[in-house]
């Protein structure tokens, strides 16, 4: 029975990304009817589940924190392509705030939604969940610095009208973001890798976890999963691009604010990280969940802003990066609460609930500012 279940899992996680990619190829450049949009949404969900499975296979082979890094970087690289494609396709004032809205939504989803849900799941199982304060604290500091440099400072600079950088300021922010991201990856994977490894509970230091005890996948299986992971992520983001016109039309018809589009698409794109983080939390590997959440936020800013800065050379229209007062308040609240959560290196149900409350406020105020 177990081998049959494993065989079925391998089958659907293999053809799921392929079918989603086929749907992307069939629908690209076309106006989709309602039933096709619904079908694409189902394909996105299947591809997300497959992506999580293949990311876990790769993570089991390479170990932490490399496994978390693979998923975070893969999703973010493709997300950058989606943002540039949408900005190039729309152009002008309509897409001036698209990069800002999507990056800020990613920060709020990762730092509050993913972290809060993971803490809640882990605390429900173990009452008190533990993680490495040094690694998570350094990652959080990197997120806050990147967010302040790229999303806060443009609101207060005076060299360029509006909440936007001048050309020189944008170039500085891009280089600083990319450099800080590179330093973080070096610290996470080489110099202080032990800061980002799961923390054993007292009395369990010498015991192997369930993941460590299981036989790692072969090199062939790892490369196969890595390839299917990329296919699944391309399909998720590409299919999100296909349904985005329907989302935009729905937002316009309902009279909702434009940032709602960025929020909805960011939620879809970040589904793989969310599911992977929650599954890690259920296994009492909260540090892996933290790596996924903060690593995704760092990659989202550190890779997106330099790419958008480079693309702005040929993209038409302004590039607005500065946050408004409402989002600034949410960012400050997120940074403060996250620091109080991370510093002790342990958390309970309360911390998870607080982060989810902030995330709920962000989503609600995006629809009703």
Topology diagram in text:
Blueprint: H1 2-27, H2 34-62, H3 66-90, H4 98-126, E1 129-130, H5 133-156, H6 167-191, H7 210-213, H8 219-254, H9 259-269, H10 271-282, H11 286-311, H12 325-342, E2 346-347, H13 349-367
Antiparallel strand pairs: 1-2
Overall shape: globular
CATH architecture: Up-down Bundle
Instruction: List segments where confidence is low: pLDDT < 50 over at least 5 consecutive residues.
Output: 1-5, 206-210
Instruction: Report the total helices.
Output: 13
Count of distinct structural domains: 1
Task: Give the SSE order as H and E letters.
Answer: HHHHEHHHHHHHHEH
Q: What percent of the residues sit in helical stretches (DSSP H or I)? A: over 70%
Strand order of the largest sheet: 1-2
Under CATH, the topology can be stated as A middle domain of Talin 1
Radius of gyration: 20 Å
User: Quick one: how many beta strands?
Assistant: 2
């Amino acid at each position: 029975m177990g081998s049959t279940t494993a065989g079925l899992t391998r089958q659907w996680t293999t053809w799921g990304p392929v079918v989603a990619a086929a749907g992307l190829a069939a629908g690209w450049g076309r106006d989709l009817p309602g039933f096709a949009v619904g079908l694409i949404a189902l394909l996105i969900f299947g591809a997300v589940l497959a992506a999580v499975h293949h990311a876990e296979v790769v993570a089991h082979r390479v170990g932490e924190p490399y496994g978390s890094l693979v998923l975070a970087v893969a999703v973010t690289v493709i997300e950058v392509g989606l943002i540039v494609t949408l900005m190039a396709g729309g152009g002008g004032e309509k897409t001036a705030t698209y990069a800002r809205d999507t990056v800020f939504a990613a920060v709020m989803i990762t730092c509050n939604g993913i972290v809060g849900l993971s803490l809640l799941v882990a605390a429900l199982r173990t009452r008190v969940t533990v993680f490495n304060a040094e690694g998570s604290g350094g990652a959080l500091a990197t997120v806050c610095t990147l967010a302040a440099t790229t999303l806060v400072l443009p609101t207060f600079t005076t060299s360029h009208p509006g909440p936007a950088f001048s050309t020189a300021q944008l170039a500085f922010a891009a280089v600083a973001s990319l450099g800080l991201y590179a330093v973080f990856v070096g610290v996470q994977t080489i110099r202080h890798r032990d800061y980002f490894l799961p923390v054993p509970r007292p009395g369990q230091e010498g015991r192997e976890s369930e993941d460590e005890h299981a036989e790692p996948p072969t090199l062939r299986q790892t490369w196969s999963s890595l390839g299917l992971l990329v296919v699944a992520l391309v399909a998720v983001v590409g299919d999100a691009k296909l349904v985005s016109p329907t989302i935009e039309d729905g937002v316009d018809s309902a009279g909702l604010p434009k940032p709602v589009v960025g929020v909805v698409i960011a939620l879809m794109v970040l589904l793989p990280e969310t599911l992977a983080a929650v599954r890690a939390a259920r296994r009492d590997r909260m540090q892996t969940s933290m790596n996924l959440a903060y690593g995704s936020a760092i990659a989202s800013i550190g890779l997106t802003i330099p790419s958008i800065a480079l693309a702005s050379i040929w993209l038409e229209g302004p590039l607005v990066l500065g946050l408004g007062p409402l989002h600034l308040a949410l960012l400050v609240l997120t940074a403060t609460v996250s620091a109080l959560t991370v510093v002790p290196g342990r958390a309970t149900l309360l911390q998870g609930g607080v982060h989810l409350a902030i995330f709920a406020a962000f989503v609600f105020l995006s629809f009703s500012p």
